[in-house]
Fold this sequence. Notes:
The chain has about 180 residues and is of the alpha/beta class. It has four helices and eight strands. The chain is about 30% helix and about 25% strand.
Amino acid sequence: MRKIQVQGVxxxxxxxxxxxxxxxxxxxxxxxxxxxxxxxxxxxxESHLYFDxxxxxxxTVFTNEERVDARRPAPREVGSMEHLAFNVSRATFTxxxxxxxxxxxxxxxxxxxxxxxxxxxxxxGMKVELACYKFETPEGHRAADVLMRAHQLxxxxxxxxIGDEHLADAIEDLLAERERLEH
Length: 183
């Protein structure tokens, strides 16, 4: 049987509470430009708000003025989404803790070996991650190329997780391979 080949995320849709709550968080806190609003064509009592998460794709939120913010952690069970991650630059990442504290938003910061992460919750308890790779992707490659090679090096060396040395060596390997192919 032939598989269906996807080409990236088209959009993500979240069930939100009110229009203002969605605008305050997605545009106000996370800086995603609000693009437009229209009725939810599949559910007449909801509006459908569209935001740009920074890569030209879409994040959308279903809202209904009868709902209130859940203000509790979202369910974490089989079939649920654990979290939604967004890329931020290193410069922005270093500013996130202070900016969240200014707004009274709780967060957790983690070093993931190959990236740094800050986790917070939207007004309905959905976990949101702001992630920043610890490397610059070499021209002509994707971040996934660097990570696949770094993982391979980590496994070959018997290391617990991907670290800076794996990333540096992976980038060096990718650039050397490109050099060999060009000559």
